[in-house]
Amino acid sequence: MSRKLFLLVFAGSILGAGAGAWSAAAPEKRIAVTIDASEIGAPISPYIYGQFIEHIGDLINRSLWAEMLDDRKFYYEITSQPAQRKPVRGRVANQWRPIGPDESVVMDRQNPYTGDQTPLIRLAGAEPRGIQQSGLALRKGKIYDGRVVLAGEPGAKVNVTLVWGPAAADRQTIPITSLRAAYAKFPLKFTAGGDANDGRIEITGTGRGSFRIGAVSLMPADNIKGFRSDTTGLLRQLRSGMYRFPGGNFLSAHEWREAIGDPDKRPPRWDPVWSAVQPNDVGVDEFMTLMGLLGVDPFISVNSGFGDAWSAAQLVEYANGAATTPMGRLRAANGHPQPYNIKWWG
Predict the structure, then answer these.
(1) pLDDT digit string (tens) for 155-207?
(2) pLDDT in tens, 125-155
């Protein structure tokens, strides 16, 4: 620090001495400037104004994507004990907790719906058992859409409840009927009856046997194809030329093939770069949807960390190949028959 200070003082003294010598030697001159606003210069390339997007913790999953639930595909074990999790970007993710005794929630690692484990809820007659997640910001009159993926025995009766207050009336419950042994998706739609900064969602069952929860999702109904309407509107105002995706340091451990297809079947993965769980909900297809919403050109980066040339070539074919190519056929099966024709790659 002392050496830096010396250099700054020394430079300042030299500049000051030079300025004094110049002012003493040079006569004062008047400079006339004319500005012609009718002259039009060469256009500035829109690609000068670009953005860089990376899955830094929940930067994309919370700031751009509209999903409200953390760990919606159950990477972590569900327990009543406080989780020893470090904040990521100043925020600790909300935790799923049991409703009923801890032993009523078993993490099934033999036949998980996706990832490494799926919660199995053991029922006990009329006593509600299940899981809950609090910390949800809810606003009165606002509609929230979602879905839950369930499988269960015929004797199980399941309810999904959104709670915004302590009173018995401060909640809305959706009963789930016709559970089967095979997983099925059930739609959810709630209207919050009050404001809450610590609202919660509950998934409970009564009756006999057990049921499994494969995945659950909840978003504000005003989302735009899965993206937040507020931040998407702000990004549109930036009028950027291109966006680069998906990283950054994050990219070196990202497997793009785990972030395509049915979002509920995409496995959650630990991101060793930013020490956070990634649900893989926002992959190349969702990014291209965002580019269409913003009117921006995509710049896709391939994984040159733990990735390989073959995987990179597959990504290029998935994005730009005709529907008759192997990876183009997979893209079409995922709901995007036309090639994206992405020009910019890194």
Answers:
(1) 999 999 999 999 999 999 999 988 999 999 999 999 999 999 999 999 999 99
(2) 999 999 999 999 999 999 999 999 999 999 9
The answer to whether 71 and 119 have CB atoms below 8 angstroms apart is no
Determine contact, residues 95/62, Cβ cutoff 8 Å: no
> How many angstroms separate the CA atoms of 76 and 119, rounded?
10
Residue 199, burial from CB neighbour count under 10 angstroms (0-12, 13-18, 19+): buried
pTM of the model: 0.86
